[in-house]
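STRUCTURE REQUEST FORM
Protein name: Transcriptional regulator
Source organism: Sulfodiicoccus acidiphilus
Requested output: structure tokens
Priority: standard
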Amino acid sequence: MLRTPLTLLTDVFMPSLRVLAAKRLRELGMSQTRIASLVGVSQPAVRQYLDEDEEKVIERLINLGLAKEEVNELVDQVTQLLSSEDVEAVMSFVTTRGLKLLSDLRFCQFHRSLDQEVPPTCSICSSLYIESEEELMRQALAMIQDEDVSELIPQVMSNMAFAKWGAKGPNDVIAVPGRITKVHGVPRPASRPEWGASAHLAKILLRVMESRHGLRAVMNLKYDDSVERALLKLGLPYVKVRGESGDDDVVAREIAEAMTGEAQVALHLGGRWLEPATYVFGRDPLEVAKRVLGLAREYVKLRSKRSQASK
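Status: completed
Returned output:
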């Protein structure tokens, strides 16, 4: 009997991610007992994971059909989700990411190397994955629940928004009702994401998407000179926008007109009744979350260096 494509997830993809995530968590100083609890295996299994050759595990995933950069990004995301202790978000992310890779026919060559009887024209996996905006938002919101990110939450709080393909109005954009605030030093969404929950971010996103169709997600953060220096350090393309007023429609137009070329971030310097803000864009909420995490890490480093230098 042929080995079904789903076994590639259960036999290769997920076990390899477990090993690499366990190693990464150990590097972060986590105990084997804690790792076992988060990964959902026994402590002896974790000990076995830690003894495995990391390069061979990475090579296994590369042979499956991933690029090395993709492997590193996946491990970063899984590790961040595990650290947030949102078990449902971890399961959702690993499952949906695996199904997406299958649907993109990334594992076909590896599958045929295992089963010679798989037809060369086989494409049964192409319909396995259907994008769920709600699930992608849930995963991204879990990823940003990090102490470093809390340093970027402004007084007016943050939000994250994600538009459907071909979005026409605010009701086609999902966001967090009540926004994202800090609870015990960690960013937390006030409630589950809902469609039409943020008129402000929806207007900005819809205007930007008129010329940058691939930028379907955005998160607003605070702005100061350390944010800009962190962006320069990361090499993340950005634009600066000098605001005229605090009107949402005007702000959306200003940002959309400025977001040309390769820009992924807009620094809006504020306007009447509007404080300066940083808008981080991406193809989806996971890409936005990844950029926000990178920005937060660099921001905290820069602030720490500045603080030490002033003593």
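Reviewer notes: The mean pLDDT is 93. Residues 27 and 215 are 34 Å apart (CA to CA).
Form closed.
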